[in-house]
Prior knowledge:
There is one protein chain. With 66 residues, the protein is an alpha+beta fold. Helix content is 27%, strand content 24%. The protein is built from 1 helix and 3 strands. A 3-stranded antiparallel beta sheet has the order 2-1-3, covered by helices on one side. The protein is elongated and about 50 Å long.
Amino acid sequence: MQKVLRKLIEIRLRQADQPVVEAPIDQGDRLWVPDTPFHRARLAHAVERRNSLFGAQTHWIEEREA
């Protein structure tokens, strides 16, 4: 029997240092959350919405190993 080691990954929403227009940011978006399908979909939606409002590549999902 083989053991499978998995890395635990956390994700959060990030934004450019100076977006074109100040965006009201929910403080919850800055917190690291486990990389689950639910959290990934929620943040992907936020990225898509905010990039449409503030410009391409102003927001993205950041990852780190937990």
